[in-house]
Amino acid sequence: MQVADEKYRIQNENGNLDIFAIGKKGKDLLKSKKYNVVDSNIEIFDSLNYSNVLAMVKKIIEDFVNNKYDVVELVYNQFKNAAVQILVEEQFLPIIYEERIMDRFESSTEYIFEPSKEYIIEELIPKSLQVQFFKILLDSHASEHGARMTAMHKATDNATDLIRELQLQYNKARQASITKEILEIVGGAEALNE
């Protein structure tokens, strides 16, 4: 069973790779491989809710805005289903703008933004990043539970097969013992009759 705890990787101005590990397994693995783990949070999954994640993501955004890091990348398990988790590495900051051409839906309508566009962007982008980070943690948490559930299901199946095999061996041994006793009784009775 392979369950990778998520982490976010941040590269500082010196070109060094700084890692913030989320989860005990990720932290222990990265430290054993001699990576530069600058911080970790191993209790987040004990009470995973938006308010607990908010402080963590605000610190990440603040470090990026203050030019402590040039790039923030997230590495996590994306939940597909209980048996399949996909390891994903994606850039969190700076935000990558993907230009999408929508020929059929182009509109020449002008919009009036109230409050201003700047205010909306200042409020909306941080909230969007916070929700995205929280979604990533939820994905990773669901992936871990899915992997555990699959492992337990396989262990249960293996235990059931083992019980069935042992029951068959027990029944064969018991039948051989009964047959031996019957043969001894019949042999003894034959000896008495002669």
Describe the structure.
- This protein is α+β, with helices and mostly antiparallel strands and 194 residues long.
- The chain has helices at residues 24-32, 50-65, 117-193, and strands at 7-12, 17-22, 37-41, 69-81, 84-93.
- It has a five-stranded mixed beta sheet, sandwiched between helices.
- α2 (50-65) packs across α3.
Write the layout of secondary structure elements.
Blueprint: E1 7-12, E2 17-22, H1 24-32, E3 37-41, H2 50-65, E4 69-81, E5 84-93, H3 117-193
Parallel strand pairs: 2-3
Antiparallel strand pairs: 1-2, 1-4, 4-5
Structural class: alpha+beta
Tally of discrete structural domains: 1
The global form is elongated
The number of helical elements comes to 3
* Strand order of the biggest β-sheet: 3-2-1-4-5
Classified by CATH, the class is Alpha Beta
CATH superfamily: ATP synthase, F1 complex, gamma subunit
Unreliable segments of 5+ consecutive residues: 1-13
What's the N-to-C terminus distance? 68 Å
Gyration radius from CA atoms, angstroms: 31 Å
- What's the total number of strands? 5
Mean pLDDT: 85
**Could you give the order of the helices and strands?**
EEHEHEEH
- Strand percentage, roughly? 15-25%
- Report the sheet with the most strands, covering strand number, pairing sense and barrel closure: 5 strands, mixed
- The CATH architecture is 3-Layer(aba) Sandwich
CATH fold descriptor: Pyruvate Kinase, Chain: A, domain 1
The percent of residues in helical segments reads 40-55%
